[in-house]
From TrEMBL:
InterPro entries: MetalloPept_cat_dom_sf (IPR024079), Peptidase_M13_dom_2 (IPR042089), Peptidase_M13_N (IPR008753). It comes from Meloidogyne floridensis. One of its GO terms (molecular function) is metallopeptidase activity. This is Peptidase M13 N-terminal domain-containing protein. GO terms for biological process: proteolysis. Residues 25-64 form the Peptidase M13 N-terminal domain.
Length: 66
């Protein structure tokens, strides 16, 4: 890995869960990268108008603080 730093492996795992490896990224890059995220966040909790990686990180950090 570049720089040899301490990388956030949670983020890497999260990205791997959203990839649709059945698609060729050259044919449809958006669906290749975002398919799993869109599929897993299609049911929004009450009070949400959208859900993004920022919401997920916010909820994760709230749980760690409490």
């Amino acid at each position: 890995m570049r720089g040899g730093g301490d990388y956030n492996l949670w983020g890497c795992t999260s990205l791997n869960c959203s990839l649709n490896t059945l698609l060729d990224p050259c044919d449809d890059f958006y669906d290749y990268v975002c398919y799993g995220f869109v599929k897993n966040t299609s049911n929004l909790p009450e009070g949400y108008t959208r859900k993004s990686q920022f919401n997920i990180l916010w909820e994760k950090s709230d749980k760690e603080i409490i």
